[in-house]
Structure formats: C-alpha cells, structure tokens
C-alpha cells in the first residue's frame, strides 16, 4: 500500500501512554481507498486492542476524485462507532462558500468541484451561464443530505494530542499554536513547508501532495495525492513510534 517508513530516531515526540492514533491524509473523493484503509485499521484494532484509539482525518474529503458523497457517508458512519476527529480542509470551506454563492462555481471547478456535483447526481454543463450556475447550486443544496451539511459545518481546524498537532495545511511559523488563524491552518504552503523551526509540537498535515510521506524534524506531510496516484496514506502513532503506510 505504498512506502513504509519510520520517523528518525533522534526526534521523539510522544503520545500519552495507551493512546494510538491513526491519521489519514487528503481523501479527495476516493471512497474506495478510504474504505480499504478503514479495513486495515479495523484489522489492526482487532489484533492489538489498544487502550484508546483515535482516528484523525486531515481534511479535503471532497472534490477532484469521483465519490465525494461516498467519502462523507463513510466518515459520518465511522464517527458513530469509533472515536474520530475529522478536521476541516480548504475544500470543505470552499464547498460551503459555493453553496451560499453560486457565482463561485466557475472558481470551484478549478478545485475539482464539478466531480463533487456529479457525486450528488447533478450533471453540470461545461460552461454554465450565470443562471445555470444558480440552478446547479440550488440543485446541490437540495441534494446534499442534512447530515452531510451538519458534518461540514462542524469540522474543527486542528487537533492536539500529546506532542502532536494535527492540521490540514500547516501553521504560520513564529505564531503560537493556540493563536493560529484558520486561513493559515487551511491554506498555508511555502512559508510553513520551508521553515526549519520547531512549532511547539510536531505537526502532522496534508494539503500539499508529495510522492511519499515527507518526514522532517518538525513535521510530517501525509498527503500523497490519492485522487491522482491511488495512494492514500495511513500514519499510525503510538508512544514515540510513527509508521506511515
């Protein structure tokens, strides 16, 4: 299921004793890959039975891939039977904005939004007029189940456990973690990616696709471009051990 690699031994951020975290990178409509990883997690849980298992999803569940609706169905069902933390990604924010402002549909299409429309049974034209854009978004508002909308509206921007900070895109260097702005947590790239400073906690993130999990002394990026590569990464953390699959 991809490259397995361990964090360099000299870096030892830790989780509390008895806690295991399963973190999954950007899904982007690949419900098939998500289901496969959930099966892997279930098998591991049945075999090892950790004291407390937390499943953390790093955002960007919709757009680009073929089954955004199916991804949200899986996450909502998963949260009913397991301890899960589903974080907000910039694509979830953009979807909510489009639902309020149909004029942003043309911009959304550049983010792979038309595939999200199709997953809800809506077939857009290639170049919809302003009137057609309004009609498409009205249809999407009708098609999205209330539980999907509630899920999207309640997503947190970050999650902290032990020495780890989980977030979609990253953090702004030099700003305390509890003072970060959503714009940076959801959208930041170069300023964060190029920084070698420590951020207060070890950052686990996605947002910027990499060919294999990118392990640095201050962060790990587990967005392996699932919608394009077919490789959705699962990161398992227990104690000070990290394993990316």
TrEMBL record:
Cited CDD domains: MPP_PPP_family
Top-rank taxon, per record: Bacteria
Coiled coil: none
Gene3D superfamilies attached to this UniProt entry: 3.60.21.10
Sequence ranges assigned to domain Calcineurin-like phosphoesterase in this UniProt record: 20-211
This protein's name: Serine/threonine protein phosphatase
Species this chain originates from: Bradyrhizobium guangzhouense
């Amino acid at each position: 299921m991809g490259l397995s690699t361990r964090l360099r031994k000299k870096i030892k951020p830790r989780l509390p004793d008895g806690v295991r975290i399963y973190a999954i990178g950007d899904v982007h409509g690949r419900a098939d890959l998500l289901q496969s990883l959930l099966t892997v997690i279930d098998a591991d849980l049945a075999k090892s039975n950790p004291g407390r298992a937390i499943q953390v999803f790093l955002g960007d569940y919709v757009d680009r891939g073929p089954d955004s609706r199916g991804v949200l169905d899986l996450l909502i069902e998963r949260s009913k039977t397991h301890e899960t933390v589903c974080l907000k990604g910039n694509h979830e924010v953009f979807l909510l904005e489009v639902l309020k402002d149909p004029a942003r549909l043309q911009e959304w299409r550049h983010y792979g939004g038309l595939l999200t429309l199709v997953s809800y049974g809506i077939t857009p034209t290639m170049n919809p007029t302003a009137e057609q854009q309004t009609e498409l978004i009205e249809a999407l508002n009708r098609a999205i189940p209330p539980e999907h909308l509630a899920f999207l509206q309640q997503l947190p921007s970050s999650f902290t456990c032990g020495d780890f900070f989980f977030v979609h895109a990253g953090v702004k260097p030099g700003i305390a973690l509890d003072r970060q702005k959503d714009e940076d947590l959801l959208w930041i790239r170069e300023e964060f990616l190029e920084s070698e400073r420590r951020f207060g906690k070890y950052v686990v993130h996605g947002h910027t696709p990499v060919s294999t999990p990118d392990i640095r002394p201050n962060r790990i990026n587990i967005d392996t471009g699932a919608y394009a590569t077919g490789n959705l990464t699962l990161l398992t953390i227990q104690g000070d051990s990290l394993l990316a699959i």
